[in-house]
Amino acid sequence: MTSSTRNFMERIRLKAMAVVLAVIVAAVGVIAWSTLPAWPVIGVGVAVVAVALNAIGSRLERAVCYSCGQSLDGQPVGERGSICPGCGSINQPFLARRESDSKQA
Asked: Which of the 8 DSSP states describes residue 93?
């Protein structure tokens, strides 16, 4: 599977998995090759993973197409969701977004 055939959610999952595995390998390497105690290295690793996953997941705060990643801001939300203008896939809206829209009306 080439990079162009992966959808947006697959790319985000792959990046998250790569970050977690890289931090695990780096932590094991630092612990094995140095005289540093394991707990501080593990603590720093957990902090790095938390910050990296937060940065990766921040892309999902706004309405985006889960297939191509295009912004869905301003798109009408129908009974089944909103249709991406770029690729035509149907995306389910966030429940919080629908609730905030109804409170403003």
From this structure: P
For residue 63, how far is the Cα from the chain centroid?
Answer: 13
Q: What is the pLDDT of residue 73?
A: 79
Tens of pLDDT, residue by residue over 7-39, are: 777 888 899 999 999 999 999 999 999 888 889
Nearest-angstrom CA–CA distance, 25 and 101: 44
Q: What is the pLDDT of residues 47-73, one digit of tens each?
A: 999 999 999 888 777 778 878 878 887
DSSP string for residues in 7-76: -HHHHHHHHHHHHHHHHHHHHHHHHHHSS--HHHHHHHHHHHHHHHHHHHHGGGSS-B-TTT--B-TTPP
